[in-house]
């Protein structure tokens, strides 16, 4: 217990201590053996594990173009050779293995990195910014801010490239204007696609709103070609005012829509085990409003490596000992620390002193200070950096129609009553259930209606064959979302089971598929890894496949009967099949 209290104290200290001036930046996603990018290269994501498996992705060759002509040349060479091609940014935070070209055996594969394709140009008169696909989101925001303008939408995590965030449908939160999804603010883009020999093996397509292929190219998942440039619409610079209001969760299913309608950048964080909902009251403020606030979300700050490793060791110990009370104590400490620190908001950029926190859009709309730390201090890093055995988690993101979201909330509350509130503490250790809002989109693979996005993180075991504490509860929540209530999965997140039947959840999937056949008829930008996501077909039925989210159990062997976990019906959604810890096989 002494170690537990010490680590809980470290949580509080890490939330209130000034962020390290220097910290270790994330590792690059592509690592090659001596000799450069000609062979022996491996691709991994920022978490060190994909949703489909935990193996790095081998690639035959990697290129780092710094201009569109160099991209055209790379695609042309691959097209002429019939090689499989994929694109990766300098960040690689996508959880499904979409960036792996696959192929297997002696198949030729090419990985195109956009890490050096990073230019940004602002047209103040037109109120647009044109960014190369590999440009970091933070660089784009800073360039826009310097010209007295604002980008209206951005994801909450800034450690992404512009091409990556648009291609996977990344978003912030808003039902106002064009909404919270960044791709809905795109006015033009340039796409390099494979071509026939007569056309030089590659072609450049400049696309703008109104063009036939534009809705397919917006959220393309890297399946149509290589996006090289993206043009986004801008607004005059504005300020935001943010206050977090803590309430009990008794009415969340009834007032979420009014909250989103009332506040332009509203969201809600629901801590179900604590019966608490945190309403983000977030909207525009007058330019002359006092304040120069900064959003530096606690979870995205550089944290001492020893603290990250200690917290992971504590959570793993609680999991192995099935210590539900300890898990709930950890969740309560995390929530209390975030509340005291304003969740990372800082008045005048230094410390949190109280609400509201007012600041310019460029400093308030996104965060991720751990992603832009120079390599000068080996003591701090992003909490999930796989080099340092820190936090390791699943991230499930379900996108609902508003009516189905209401029913989902009520079902989760019924599950809480049936399983006990303490069984839901695992998600509250991270960030509860984050509820955000996006508008209906023109993109074929964007949202077909105004939607509610629910994102929740929870413990992932280091051993894929290890069962988890309250595993059955979170598998039932997952199936409540994606099966019973028909939620659509976020393309860049989720365990593989979330993508079952995904094509039927997007009404314009056929139009996207037709565009894909037109632009890449030979399937050069396909791979077995992207196929398992977009096809939404369960591919694994081996022993233990349900433990890591590669299948929904239908037999006990899909769980871990040797460790007392058997395939059982859900407690509330009885059609669900979950891995439940039971004393005997007959329970």
TrEMBL record:
It comes from the Eukaryota. It is an enzyme of class 1 (oxidoreductase). One of its GO terms (molecular function) is L-gulonolactone oxidase activity. GO terms for biological process: L-ascorbic acid biosynthetic process. Its EC number is 1.1.3.8. Belongs to the oxygen-dependent FAD-linked oxidoreductase family. This is L-gulonolactone oxidase. Residues 1-23 form the signal peptide. SUPFAM superfamilies: FAD-binding/transporter-associated domain-like (SSF56176). Coiled coil: none annotated.
């Amino acid at each position: 217990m002494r170690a537990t209290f010490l680590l809980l104290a470290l949580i509080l200290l890490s939330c209130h201590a000034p962020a390290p001036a220097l910290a270790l930046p994330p590792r690059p996603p592509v690592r090659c053996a001596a000799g450069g990018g000609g062979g022996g290269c491996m691709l991994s994501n920022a978490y060190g594990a994909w949703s489909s498996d935990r193996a790095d992705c081998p690639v035959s060759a990697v290129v780092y173009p710094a201009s569109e002509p160099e991209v055209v040349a790379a695609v042309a060479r691959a097209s002429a050779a019939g090689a499989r091609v994929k694109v990766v940014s300098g960040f690689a935070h996508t959880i499904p293995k979409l960036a792996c070209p696959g192929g297997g055996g002696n198949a030729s594969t090419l990985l195109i990195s956009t890490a050096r394709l990073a230019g940004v140009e602002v047209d103040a008169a037109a109120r647009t910014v044109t960014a190369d696909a590999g440009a970091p989101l933070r660089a784009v925001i800073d360039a826009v801010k310097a010209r007295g303008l604002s980008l209206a939408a951005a994801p909450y995590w800034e450690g992404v490239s512009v091409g990556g965030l648009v291609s996977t449908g990344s978003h912030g939160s808003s039902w106002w204007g064009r909404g919270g999804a960044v791709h809905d603010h795109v006015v033009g883009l340039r796409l390099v696609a494979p071509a026939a020999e007569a056309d030089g093996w590659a072609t450049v397509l400049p696309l703008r709103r109104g063009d036939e292929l534009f809705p397919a190219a917006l959220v393309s998942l890297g399946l149509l070609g290589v996006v090289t440039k993206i043009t986004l619409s801008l607004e005059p610079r504005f300020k935001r005012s943010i206050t977090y209001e803590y309430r009990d969760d008794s009415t969340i299913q009834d007032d979420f829509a009014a909250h989103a309608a009332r506040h332009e950048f509203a969201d809600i964080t629901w801590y179900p085990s604590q019966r608490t909902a945190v309403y983000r009251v977030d909207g525009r403020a007058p330019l002359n409003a006092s304040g120069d606030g900064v959003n530096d979300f606690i979870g995205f700050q550089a944290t001492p490596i020893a603290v990250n490793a200690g917290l992971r060791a504590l959570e793993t110990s609680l999991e192995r000992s099935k210590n539900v009370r300890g898990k709930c104590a950890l969740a309560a400490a995390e929530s209390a620390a975030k509340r005291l620190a304003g969740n990372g908001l800082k008045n005048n950029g230094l410390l949190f002193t109280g609400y509201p926190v007012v600041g310019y859009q460029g400093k308030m709309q996104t965060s991720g200070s751990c992603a832009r730390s120079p390599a000068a201090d080996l003591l701090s890093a992003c909490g999930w950096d796989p080099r340092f055995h820190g936090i390791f988690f699943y991230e499930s993101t379900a996108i609902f129609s508003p009516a189905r979201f209401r029913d989902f909330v009520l079902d989760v509350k019924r599950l809480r009553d049936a399983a006990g509130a303490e069984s839901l503490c695992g998600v509250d250790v991270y960030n509860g259930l984050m509820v955000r809002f996006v508008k209906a989109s023109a993109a074929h693979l964007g949202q077909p209606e105004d939607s509610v996005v629910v994102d929740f993180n929870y413990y992932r075991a280091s051993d894929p064959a290890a069962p988890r504490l309250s595993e059955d509860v979170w598998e039932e929540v997952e199936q409540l979302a994606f099966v019973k209530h028909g939620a659509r999965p976020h393309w860049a997140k989720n365990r593989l089971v979330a993508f079952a039947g995904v094509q039927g959840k997007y009404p314009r999937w056929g139009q996207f598929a037709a565009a894909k056949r037109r632009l890449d008829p030979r399937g050069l930008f396909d791979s077995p890894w992207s196929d398992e996501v977009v096809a939404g077909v369960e591919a694994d039925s081996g022993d233990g496949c349900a433990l890591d989210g590669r299948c929904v159990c239908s037999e006990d062997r899909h769980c871990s009967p040797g460790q007392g976990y058997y395939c059982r019906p859900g407690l509330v959604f009885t059609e669900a099949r979950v891995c439940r810890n039971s004393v005997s096989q007959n329970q």
